[in-house]
Predict the structure.
Amino acid sequence: MSALLFAQIQFQSRKGNTCVAENGLCPDWITHNFDRYVGPFWQHVFLTVTSVAIGFVIAFLLALLAHRKRWLIPPLSATSQILYGIPSIALFLLLLPLTGRGNVTALIALVSYTLIFIFVNVSTGLDGVPPDAVDAARGMGLSERQLLWRVEVPLALPEILAGLRIAATTTVGLAALAFFAGAGGLGQEIYADIGFKSNVVVAGGLAVLLAVILDLLILGVQRLLTPWRRATS
Amino acid sequence: MTPVLASVIDDFSGGIDFIFNQRESVSGQTQVGGHEMIHLTLNHLALSAAAVVVAAAIAVPLGLYLGHYGKGEFAAINASNVGRSIPTLVLLAVFIAYLGVGFIPIMISLALLALPPILTNTFVGTRQVEGDSVDAARGMGMTEAGIMRSVELPLAIAIIFAGVRVATVNVIATATIAPLGSVDSLGTPIISENVYGADGRLGAAIAVTVLTLAISGGLAVLQRAVTPRGLKLGRGEPRQRNRVFPSLRRRAQTTP
């Protein structure tokens, strides 16, 4: 075992090509080839951020609507559940005949997967607002619109942003398959040479890094927007 | 508009035709589609089932143990969150690059994918069993292992099964990319488009969608069946809420 390890170190201490031929994790190769991951990385960021943003607008508005008209909740959540149940690779391919290869197809599929998390969380967040707070706001003479934006939405923010976090990390993972729709991204790089350790580690590492960064970013926003939660916890 | 619609219908009927009728491959050497789809579907299901069984065999006892003794709450709750931030393609690619291709590495990577939701749900399900029931069992002289097996497991089974269902659906969807690791599944015509053609690719996508939705629906029915009758009666409301997995995940996520 140690002899084998030593042999590997030997290979790496020589020139990059031997390491690549041996299918190792090659620092030289990575530094020389890092440039080709930059484009796909930003494409991945674009796909994720755009689809989460569009999905948020759609699901948030639907949840507000369902908050007023309760009977809409079962059909809307059932629809988003069914959309979520379709395997992502299949959905990319099923959309191809309709919308062609490229970003549009990828975004339609990715947006449809974000809906469930945001819709469910906004709904439960709004439902969880204490009735006392709503009564007090009404007693102070707030209109329905003021009540929504000044009391209900702020109090539901932790839930809403939690839903956004789940949507963001999930979408990073699904966007890794967007190359089936011809939309590139880090998945394309992984797929191009899936047996090569250096390639898989760099492209995969960037994808995981992106998920973690987005997660922490939204967590930071949540802490900034809900200072009262910090005081109590 | 009309020519677009016609070409869409044409594409889809080609895909459906591929599922039901065998044809020559693109290179013209072998027969693909039709009968072959049965073989691919069975392989797809065998691979998925093996992965879920392995994951459940590890996650259910572990979740019961951790839940019973109240240990490792942070790890058990956050397993799903960590699992979600690792893209499935990355998980599969790491196993292929480091362990090589074949049934075992692919099955293990799919099992790892299935593990977090089952673990989190088993833990949460065990924790929310009422203390009174556990105390009563202990007072009757049951051993700790007996309590886990005969009291906590049945009372948590609905939530555990919800986790198994989510895991199974995820695994079946992801088994589509198993051919990247040289394991045949319904994804084979998708990955090897040069052999199967555009019809094969679309046909396989349709087949995977139908299979996943069917299994998901079937497991939802089964989930009702495995829920002990006592849990369905009388205490419908809180149970109902717990059984919806996304809300459970949300709760897990919000735990600071």
